[in-house]
């Protein structure tokens, strides 16, 4: 009989029961979400409940296979009598510092993956959405968790700090700003605790010369307005090839003009986004709708600023609200130069009639998610993982990689007591045979002599004149 108080079979039953409880309680969860963060009801349903329930179904279908022990093949002959396999075990105790902008979906998926992998979890709910997240956590317990499998602390920043400084965890998961993520990383580093940091992106959307400008405008504007622009994967800048510029602006202008004010999470967020947009307009950009309205309290009308200065804060994208820079670019290289000037890449989108074009510059996008002819919607696939780059964090969450990240892999081997390499030093005859075997193989070539193989490195004195000449040559070519 298994000594595991929460075996895989019980975890699968828990996933099924929690899925059904979320479905039955969806209206309550959605209502709390609307009250606490002013998310429109249709967005709470489509962006919170539906992705979470899809993640439950995917986890139930794939959990056993992902956690199954895998046999390691390809054993060399000289490991006589050995068998190897990789087993997966829970990490142990996991802390989740929850975020507010998608309070049900993000916390829900992180929790289900940590618990489904067999971990004990402590959650610090967001101070901005405490009732929404505490209601979900109550459902998770009611679905049948053993005592001690899940607990949570008060939804305050101070409680989160105390939690990490006073308790020992095997892993910490955080979703939020880069500034707070840096603080959490510093605290975790003191005890060498691994972390998954899913921090905000400041990414780009590329509209190439062969893109459908109407489709690109509709999809991108929807993402600017979605969740009042408070989505880490929403584009901060739209880079439009000059050949598509006129068509794109013609399609985007009526959408921007018809935009209605949205409520941000607080007045400070609205004021910052408004201030960044206003500064971009003052420095030479213009509002595509023809007008610009500063934020009033938490309310701000979404705005697209056309052709702002490339050095503006709006183009840099260090804001979290419904404002986007739209810049004309001269081809892909020019677009990449603007994109690469930002060091926070999470999800990049490209609009083109020929998706294979992206292959040529895909590595330079430096994003863990690249969507072609779409932006956020494809990331709702329950098998898709996401991870930050540079100041957007590290580690993968969600999907297959996110679930496996909640486990540790252990390589286990057994050696036969009968057929095995003798546990003693070989004699001279055996050593000679091993030497011949080590040199045997297809295409074996004679190695170079030692003096031929040793690389020749110039001394510092020899290298200095050459470097100086190179600098002189480079300067001579400048206009």
Structural description of this entry:
By secondary structure, the chain is of the alpha/beta class. 43% of the residues lie in helices and 19% in strands. The strands form six sheets. A seven-stranded mixed sheet has the order 11-13-14-9-8-16-17, sandwiched between helices. The protein has a six-stranded mixed sheet with strand order 5-4-3-6-7-20, sandwiched between helices. α1 (8-24) packs antiparallel against α3 (41-67), α1 crosses α5 and α8 packs across α9. It starts with 7 loop residues before the first helix and ends with a helix. The model is unreliable at 459-479 (pLDDT under 50).
Write the layout of secondary structure elements.
Blueprint: H1 8-24, H2 26-37, H3 41-67, E1 70-72, E2 82-90, E3 93-97, H4 105-116, E4 120-124, H5 130-142, E5 150-152, H6 157-166, E6 171-176, H7 178-190, E7 195-199, E8 204-207, H8 213-225, E9 237-241, H9 242-257, E10 262-263, H10 267-282, E11 286-287, E12 299-300, E13 303-306, H11 313-316, E14 323-329, H12 331-340, E15 344-345, E16 347-351, H13 362-365, E17 369-372, E18 386-387, E19 389-390, E20 393-394, E21 396-397, H14 399-404, E22 407-415, H15 428-439, H16 450-453, H17 460-476
Parallel strand pairs: 3-4, 3-6, 4-5, 6-7, 8-9, 8-16, 9-14, 13-14, 16-17
Antiparallel strand pairs: 1-2, 2-22, 7-20, 10-12, 11-13, 15-19, 18-21
């Amino acid at each position: 009989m298994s000594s595991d108080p929460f075996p895989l079979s019980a975890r699968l039953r828990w996933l099924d029961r929690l899925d059904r409880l979320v479905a039955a309680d969806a209206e309550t969860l959605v209502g709390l979400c609307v009250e606490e963060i002013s998310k429109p009801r249709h967005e709470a349903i489509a962006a919170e409940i539906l992705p979470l329930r899809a993640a439950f179904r995917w986890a139930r279908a794939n959990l056993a296979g992902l956690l199954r022990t895998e046999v390691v093949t390809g054993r060399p002959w000289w490991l006589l009598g050995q068998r190897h396999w990789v087993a997966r075990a829970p990490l142990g105790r996991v802390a989740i510092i929850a975020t507010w902008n998608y309070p049900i979906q993000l916390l829900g998926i992180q929790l289900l993956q940590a618990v489904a992998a067999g971990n004990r979890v402590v959650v610090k709910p967001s101070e901005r959405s405490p009732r929404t997240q505490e209601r979900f956590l109550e459902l998770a317990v009611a679905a049948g968790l053993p005592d001690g499998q899940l607990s949570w602390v008060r939804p305050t920043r101070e409680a989160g700090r105390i939690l990490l400084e006073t308790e020992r965890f095997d892993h910490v998961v955080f979703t939020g700003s880069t500034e707070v993520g840096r603080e959490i990383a510093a605290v975790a580093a003191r005890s060498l605790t691994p972390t998954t940091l899913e921090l905000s992106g400041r990414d780009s959307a590329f509209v190439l010369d062969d893109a459908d400008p109407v489709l690109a405008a509709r999809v991108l504007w929807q993402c600017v307005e979605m969740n009042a622009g408070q989505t880490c994967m929403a584009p901060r800048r739209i880079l439009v090839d000059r050949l598509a510029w006129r068509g794109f602006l013609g399609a985007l202008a009526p959408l921007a003009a018809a935009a209605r004010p949205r409520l941000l999470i607080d007045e400070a967020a609205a004021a910052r986004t408004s201030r960044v947009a206003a500064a971009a307009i003052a420095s030479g950009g213009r509002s595509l709708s023809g007008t610009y309205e500063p934020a009033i309290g938490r309310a701000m009308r979404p705005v697209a600023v056309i052709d702002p200065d490339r050095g503006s804060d709006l183009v840099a994208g260090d804001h979290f609200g419904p404002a986007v820079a739209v810049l004309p670019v001269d081809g892909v290289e020019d677009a990449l130069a603007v994109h690469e000037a930002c060091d926070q890449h999470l999800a990049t989108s490209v609009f083109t009639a020929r998706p294979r074009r992206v292959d040529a510059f895909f590595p330079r996008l430096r994003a863990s998610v690249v969507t072609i002819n779409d932006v956020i919607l494809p990331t709702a696939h329950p098998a898709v993982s996401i991870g930050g780059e540079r100041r957007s964090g590290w580690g993968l969450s969600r999907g297959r990689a996110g679930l496996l990240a909640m486990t540790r892999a252990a390589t286990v081997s057994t050696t036969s007591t009968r057929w095995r390499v003798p546990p003693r030093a070989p004699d001279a005859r055996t050593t000679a045979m091993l030497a011949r075997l080590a040199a045997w193989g297809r295409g074996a070539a004679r190695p170079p002599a030692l003096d031929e193989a040793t690389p020749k490195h110039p001394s510092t004195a020899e290298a200095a004149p050459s470097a100086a000449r190179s600098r002189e040559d480079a300067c001579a070519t400048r206009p």
